[in-house]
Amino acid sequence: MKIFLFAPKHGAEAIPLPCDRSDERDMTDRLEIRESVPKDAALIERLYPNAFPDEDLSPLVRDLLSEAPIVLSLVGMADTALVGHAIFTTCGIAGRPDKVALLGPLAVAPAWQRQGIGSALVLAGLQRVETAGASRVYVLGDPAYYERFGFEPDADVTPPYPLPEAWRGAWQSLSLGGNKPRPRGKLAVPQPWRQQALWAP
Ligand SMILES: CC(C)(COP(=O)(O)OP(=O)(O)OC[C@H]1O[C@@H](n2cnc3c(N)ncnc32)[C@H](O)[C@@H]1OP(=O)(O)O)[C@@H](O)C(=O)NCCC(=O)NCCS
Fold first, then answer.
1. Which one, 48, 122, 167, 196, has the greatest CB density within 10 A?
2. What pTM was estimated for this model as a whole?
3. Measuring from atom 37 of ligand 1, which residue has the nearest CA?
4. pLDDT higher than threshold 90 for residue 68
C-alpha cells in the first residue's frame, strides 16, 4: 500500500460541504477536534476515497473503528462538515512492557488541505495518547511532513512486516513526555494492521 507516502492530491473531488467557505477567520479557529462517535462512520467513509483516490482504505478504517478500546479516532469538524480524520492505535513492542501508539491513517478532505487541519489532528492525538500512557508514537509516512512534529527515522523498532528499502526513512517515531531512550524490538500490532499489503507498495 502506498498510502502513507502520497503527497496531497490536488484536484481530487472534494466532499460537498455545507458550511460557508467565505468566512475569513483562520481555519483552526473554526475547527473542532473530537473523538468520533458511531454516527460519524458514514462521513469518515466518504472522506477516505477523496483523500486517497488510488487506495481503498475503507476496510482498514472500518476494522480499526470497531477496535474502540485500543483505537483513538479523532475527527476534525468545521461547523457540521467532517474535514479530517486521524487514527492512533495502541500497540506494543514484542517482549517488552512498552505501551506505544501507531499513527495512521490520517486524511484531510482535499478542499481543506494546507490549512492546519492535519497538524491539529496529529497534535491533538499525540497529547491524548501521551495522557493515556503511551511512551512513543510510530508512523509510516513522508518525513517531510512528520518531521515538523518531531518524528525521526527509527531503525530500533521494526514495523510488523519488512519495508521496501526505499521506505526505510519513512518509518519514524516520536518520544512522548521527554526524550527517552528508544526501545528496540518489533512493533506488535492488533489484528487490523496484520496485513502485509498495508506495509508494502
Ligand atoms: C497529508 C495531509 C493529512 C496533511 O493535512 P493538511 O491539513 O493538508 O496539513 P497541514 O495544513 O497541517 O500542513 C500543511 C503542510 O504540510 C505539507 N504537506 C502536506 N502533505 C505533505 C506530504 N505528503 N509530504 C510533505 N509535506 C506535506 C504542506 O506542504 C504544508 O506545508 P507548508 O505549511 O510548509 O506549506 C493531507 O494533505 C492529506 O490528507 N493528504 C492525502 C492523504 C495522505 O497522504 N495522508 C497521509 C499523510 S503522510
1. 122
2. 0.89
3. 8
4. no
